Each structure stands twice: as C-alpha cells, then as structure tokens.
C-alpha cells in the first residue's frame, strides 16, 4: 500500500481463536497483531468468543473501555460483550462476545442463509451450529458498533477468518453492505476433508468438484458457508499459492490476494541470551531423555524434532518415522540420534514414574515404555505408538536412532519438561516437518527463525514459498518434493538430509543455522503485513 492511500477508519478481525489458543490461526493472529496494531492503532479491534471463564490469562478486561456502548449493545442485541486487551505483543483491543445469548435466533438466520445463498444446513453436525452462531453474533455486534458510533459514512471493514466465522460475513452482506468485508480461508474444509479421509488430493486434483466432494464427505454445510463467504467478500484471501490453487478448484474462486503468514522476531533471543537459552534447553532435553531411556547419551548426540497438531498423515508424522527407520540402517551415520515427537495426544498426564526418576535418579522406573513421556488414554490404539512399535524403535543403547514421543501441549506446565515449546525448540539441532497437507506451515518457519535448520516439503505453503529447488539442508531449509505416489522416495530424501547434517563439522552447522535465520528474516510480519494493507485497499475499492 502506498503512503498516500488511507488506512481504514475501523477494522474488525473476527476469529474463533482470538484469546483462545486452540490451533494455527491463533499463531497467525497473535503474531500478526503487533505489526497490524502499529499501523491501525485502536482502529483495529479483534473479536473472539467469551466462554465465561473467571480467569483467562490471554485477556485483560477493561470495564471502562466502550462502557456506554456495551450497555447499549446488550439492550439492543441481547449480546453480552467484554472489552479489554489481548495479552500479546501489541496489546490490541479485543471484544469477547457471548454468542449463546442469541441462540434462539439461529434457526431464522439459517433460513436467511438458505434463502439468500442456498446454504443447506439441514444435515449439519458437530461444531457447525455454534460456529454459525458465533459468526452471526459477531456481525450483529459490528453492526451495532457502527450505528452507535455514527460510522455509517466511514470506512469500516470486517475481516472474517475461516469458515467458522463466514456466517458473519454473509449476515453483513445481507444487512449492512456498507461495511466492507474480507474473508481468509487458512485451509479449505473440503481439501482438508479429502486428506483426512485418506484420499489422494493432488493426483486427481484437477478433476475434483468442491460441491460434489463436500457432499460425499458430509461437510456440505461448512463448505457452502466457506464458498459463499469467499464469493461474497469484498476481498478474498488465503495464506499461500498452494491454497490459492485449492480455493480456485474447490471453492471456484481465485483469491484476490495471497497474504502469507509471518512471524515476530522479538520472541527469539539473541546474542548471549540465545546461547544461554539453547544450552539450557539442550540440557533439559538430554536429562529427560536419559532418565526415560535409562542410560547416558553422547554429549554430541543429534537432537531432531517434529511438532504440530496430531494429524498423522497430513503433518507427515508417518514420513518422519519412515525416514528415521531408514537412518537406523545407514552405515555412514556414526552419530547418536534422538528424535523427539512433540505432538499433543489424548493426554492423561505426566508419567508418575518418570517424574519420580527426574526428581531422584535412584527411584524405581518402568523401562518397558521408555519411548513416551506422558500417559495417554488410547495407548494401544494410538497411531504414533503403534508406528514406533512396528518400526521396532526399541531405544536400546546400541541403537543408532532413539525415538521419544511427547504427547502433551508444551505450555510450561506439562509435568515433565515444564517449558514452553519455543523454550525447547531452541535446544534442537534439526527439525523435520514432512507435511502432506499444510496450507502454510508455521513450524518450519519458527524453527528457521530460531536458527534451527529444518526440512519441509513442497506441499507446505512455506516450503513452496522458499523454493522447490532448495532440496539440500546445507541451505538452512531443505524442501523435499512430495506427491501422492513418492512416499518412499521422499522418506529416502529426508534420510539423506539427516545423514548429511549429522556429518557436518561445527562450522558447517553454524553456517547452516545462519542461512536458516536469514531466510526466516524475509518472513517477518514487518514485511508481510503489507499484504494485509493491500487487501484492505482491494476491499475498499470493491463496488457493491
């Protein structure tokens, strides 16, 4: 956006994940907020759900902020609103709304969506109704805010994220067309469902019809909200060229602009703080691994990691384990490898015997399960557990590769590491994110930002952004070619990069780390926020 072009008078950003840390969109918005707030100040207001929690560490309520309007809004719409600040860098203004106050209006609104857009909600299930209700209530709040503050002739914009808020966009288009709307899909409902159901997304991609596949996979209601929000938005965006292609095919709408996801580098320590943090993280990882395994590790053991949501195929956890198995038979590898799978599972809690062992090295300990740090409900049916067993990662001292599953969120209180994810990430030597379906891919970007060389794939938006020709880990980021049919070739390529990295000299590793850092710097929000400003301009110029 050029300096001569004006910023909007007010921007509302609506997401289920505002002050609600449940997935990748939280990472996008919470990291984006500082750069966007610097450009819009308090003309930017985030809207999220209010779950009635007595305490929410992510939200600080300010009962004086918009006090008169909140009282008026409650009277006019029956929707309770809390105003305050999101406890993240930038401290942006936030409205948390109790969408369930207008639950009795849902059926009428579902009919309105059918009448105007043929959104069929009859066979909807799961989280559909609540998501539609949240989007609807958010739009009502935005409408009331505009009216109360006499902004009808001002440039007011509402940005809706993911299908879970798309209903709000449709409400505004039906009732308040003067408010310009933006819609971002971070991953299409139908594309994700195709992958979840073990269908080949890429091999037959050009022949897929979004409506037909949504019906086959029983996600029609969600798909239609998403599709019509994309078509009706004054500016439709997505996060990568990869997902833009998906949108064009499955939603029959080419995004107006791609708005890639950046990161804030102020959460990465530098200088002596970096060195200290890495040393501490490595010591914690080594200590837990040694107590779990029951023996000492080499001081120069290679610590490898993967992380993300528990999507065994989509996130490439299967391919990660396959490549590690290949590495166990690699005669050129003389370095001990410890691979950490930092993926939350159906967690019961920290293993009591491991906790005792960490507190007292002489405590009794069950060596029968020395590959998992936390107890899980579905131990015998867990996909990762069964893969570790089938690949025979026995974690004996003589084994070249040891695998450790950490099935817990790492928020600093997991009972074993008691460190946040980033505080452990910095202690790894190499990360691998072998994604099959990944619209963007924050995990490899975060790794690179911490100077940890990483391996990703061309089926991740970030990997595609880097370069599909960047296949060598010596570049700091290696992008492995994946498709629907080259699973074993991709595993072999990852294995080769692991072995290449393991054989690097100290100076080569340092150079590799520096290249990863330099690449990540090109992805900072200071750079990428310009795409959002351009999106606002596209929306402002759209004629109704």
Mind explaining what this structure looks like?
With 544 residues, the protein is of the alpha/beta class. It is built from 19 helices and 17 strands. The strands form 3 sheets. The protein has a 9-stranded mixed β-sheet, with helices on both faces. Helix 1 (24-40) links the parallel strand 1 and strand 2. Helix 2 crosses helix 4, helix 5 crosses helix 8 and helix 7 runs antiparallel to helix 8. The longest helix is centred in the middle third of the chain and has 23 residues, at 271-293. The two termini are 22 Å apart.
Short structural description:
The chain has 544 residues and is α/β, with parallel strands linked by helices.
Care to count the β-strands?
17
Low-pLDDT residue intervals, each spanning 5 or more residues? none
Provide the β-strand percentage band.
Answer: 5-15%
Principal-axes geometry comes out as globular
Distance between the termini: 22 Å
Helix fraction, binned, reads 40-55%
Whole-number mean pLDDT: 94
How is the largest sheet built, in terms of strand order? 3-4-5-2-1-6-7-8-9
- State the secondary-structure class: alpha/beta
Largest sheet: 9 strands, mixed
Number of helices: 19
Helix and strand topology:
Layout: E1 10-14, H1 24-40, E2 44-49, E3 59-61, H2 67-77, E4 80-86, E5 93-98, H3 106-117, H4 128-148, E6 156-161, H5 163-175, E7 180-185, H6 189-196, H7 210-216, H8 220-232, E8 235-238, H9 241-250, E9 257-258, H10 271-293, E10 302-307, H11 317-328, E11 337-342, E12 347-350, H12 352-359, E13 374-376, H13 383-390, E14 401-406, H14 421-425, E15 430-432, H15 442-449, E16 454-457, H16 461-466, E17 477-480, H17 487-502, H18 506-521, H19 525-541
Parallel strand pairs: 1-2, 1-6, 2-5, 6-7, 7-8, 8-9, 10-11, 10-15, 11-14, 15-16, 16-17
Antiparallel strand pairs: 3-4, 4-5, 12-13
Helix pairs in contact: 1-19, 2-4, 4-5, 5-8, 7-8, 11-17, 15-18
